[in-house]
Every structure is written in structure tokens, then in C-alpha cells.
Give the backbone structure.
Amino acid sequence: MSHKARDAKTIGLAIGPKEKLEIFGAAALSEDELLAVLLRTGMHGVPVASLAKKLLSEHGGVHGLENATVAELSSTSGVGKAKATLLKAAFELARRNGNAAPTPDTLKKANGRNRSGGKLIPFGWYGGKYSHLMYCL
């Protein structure tokens, strides 16, 4: 947890997932918070955070959501065809991003290192993306 997130909790700020994303970045959000941002709204008497947790639970996590059909997603109360198709489109974009070949410019910029300067070592395939280990020099 970043010091910003700890500070927000310490002073008792109640921030939603959209605000948390704006302040701390997407990496600071849990899977249910990221899903809540995509869903945008819950339903009468059910906050969007609860709906996101319910969807993840019903489908066995993010990988289950990714493999669910629009009909399966929209069978959950509070998730209509619009939200279900939005989720399927988001997963497809993520899949395409994971399968996209890097451009010469991105390879040149990265040069095998991440933003913090750690060296990246490829180690395996995960969810349609090639994953890396990092070590710092």
C-alpha cells in the first residue's frame, strides 16, 4: 500500500474507487474496485462495490468473468446487456493489448527495464500476457 493510500485511510477520507484511481492510479485498486469503476452504478439498494464483489464471486474471479458470455454476465441482477457487453469489450481490449507486438519505439524506450530501473526478465505466460520478473541493479 502506498503512503498516499495509508494517509487517506489515516485521516478518515472515504473515497470511492473512481476517486482512488484518480489520486493513486489504477495499480492501487483491488479487482473489485476496478470492476466497480467499469460498472459505474449499482442498482436500487445495492451499491456498485457490492455488485462488483458479487460478480467476481459468482464467476470465480477475474478469469471467470473474462470467460463468461454476455448472457451469463447479464443473468446477474443489476447487470444488464449494456454492462455485460462493456465488460466483454474491456476484456477483449486487454487481450489484444497482451497479444500486441511491441513497436520499435516502445522497445527502445523500455530497453528491458521498468520505470523504477529494475531489469525485466521474461518468465512465463499468464492470462494472455507474457509476465516478467524484476530485479534491481
